Amino acid sequence: MNDFFGLLDKWRHFPAFPLEARSEVFFALFLPTVLESHFKKDGVKIKPQVIPQFPLKKEDNNQSNNVDFFALSDNGECAFLIELKTDMASISKEQACYLKRAMKKDVDETLADITKISQRSEQKEKYRHLLSALRELEADLPKLRIKPEVVYIQPRPCKKNKVDGFKYIYFAEFAEIVESQGDMGGLFAGYLRKWRENPAKSPPR
């Protein structure tokens, strides 16, 4: 596994290599634990299942923008739209705009939007699996008339791109939380600390 992370660390410096897409499953493994730790003052407990590539319906059609993860608290009182960034250069204002819109909608309305998207999609079978997973996730919850929190997971703070109302978890905090989560957590934490720096910042060695 160290060889795998070593390749990610090496290849992230290449122009077209998507570290975010290649590493997001490792973030997902630890995401409930990290969210609980970050929001512990609020006493939030997170359901262990997270939904990847959660679709957010566009305003004027039945297409979607995807946010990296969707998570719910055990009691259904908190919902989270989580956007992962492994490169500070990939943070965009356009993305922040549609995430702001999503913050203003109740979660049950956003879930209803997914049904609309699925009816027009050519990937109906995959949407059936997504809708099934969402039903399972909220099976024991009341109607989700709550507004979601938007959480960015990113290498480090950036005043220029910070958005009022969004929450931020930086790689240093993520690493501190996961390093005690077994061998995998310790290994991942070490690479997260490396990934706080921009890719290709230094000449190749």
Written account of the structure:
The chain is of the alpha/beta class and 205 residues long. 44% of the residues lie in helices and 16% in strands. It has seven helices and five strands, in the order ααβββαααββαα.
Total DSSP helices? 7
**What does the largest sheet look like?**
5 strands, mixed
What is Rg? 17 Å
What is the oligomer described by this structure?
Answer: single chain
Q: What is the structural class?
A: alpha/beta
Task: Annotate the secondary structure layout.
Layout: H1 2-11, H2 19-38, E1 51-57, E2 64-72, E3 79-84, H3 93-103, H4 107-120, H5 124-137, E4 149-154, E5 167-170, H6 171-178, H7 182-194
Parallel strand pairs: 3-4, 4-5
Antiparallel strand pairs: 1-2, 2-3
